[in-house]
Amino acid sequence: MAIPKVLTVFDIYERAKTGPKVEEKEWDFKIIPQTAAKLKKKYDIKMDKKQIVPTDKTLMNNLFQAGLEMLVECGIYCIDTNRVIKYRKDEVMAAITSAPTRAIYGEGKQAVVLAPRSYTEKRPPIIQGGPTGAPCSEDQFLAIHQSYAQEPLVDTIVDGVLQTIKGYDPIPGSPWEIAAVKSEAILVRAAQDRAGRTGMGL
């Protein structure tokens, strides 16, 4: 039996240009909800609202099988081309098999290891803190991020975005957008330094 090829970004790019054409509204309001409802019934998926993470092994397996089937049946929608990127089951499984088992965020004393955790895991999860994409004013940006970095519980920072840069709106595709993104990275690193967390993941 041949080992399935792991897809590359180039393969995905080509499929985004040549996949089935679908209107976004049809995808959002018909294809996805109808497929989800069908698979929920097929795999008899019933969630207990009092238990956020399911621990029943049959339910966990059914959720995985339903998710796998949904990905293969529906694919991934590309809003730039209005096309569906399709995958075969063996391609999905090959991607899962070849996926990294751990990643390191940050460096030096601030480095933390991101690895899969079982529902029985006693090791605490990584805590990411920060405004997470929320707009922040220029005059408060540094202080906001420093307040997250100086919390001992926080392992990595997920930064916010500058509302303005030197008073200008960082309009997408403009030079001001580039300046804002560069400034955000510089300011978050400065906030980490001020908090004594140099090397913290970002």
UniProtKB/TrEMBL annotation:
<keyword id="KW-0489">Methyltransferase</keyword>
<dbReference type="GO" id="GO:0032259">
    <property type="term" value="P:methylation"/>
</dbReference>
<dbReference type="Pfam" id="PF05369">
    <property type="entry name" value="MtmB"/>
</dbReference>
<dbReference type="InterPro" id="IPR008031">
    <property type="entry name" value="MtmB_MeTrfase"/>
</dbReference>
<protein>
    <submittedName>
        <fullName>Monomethylamine:corrinoid methyltransferase</fullName>
    </submittedName>
</protein>
<keyword id="KW-0808">Transferase</keyword>
<dbReference type="GO" id="GO:0008168">
    <property type="term" value="F:methyltransferase activity"/>
</dbReference>
<dbReference type="InterPro" id="IPR036655">
    <property type="entry name" value="MtmB_sf"/>
</dbReference>
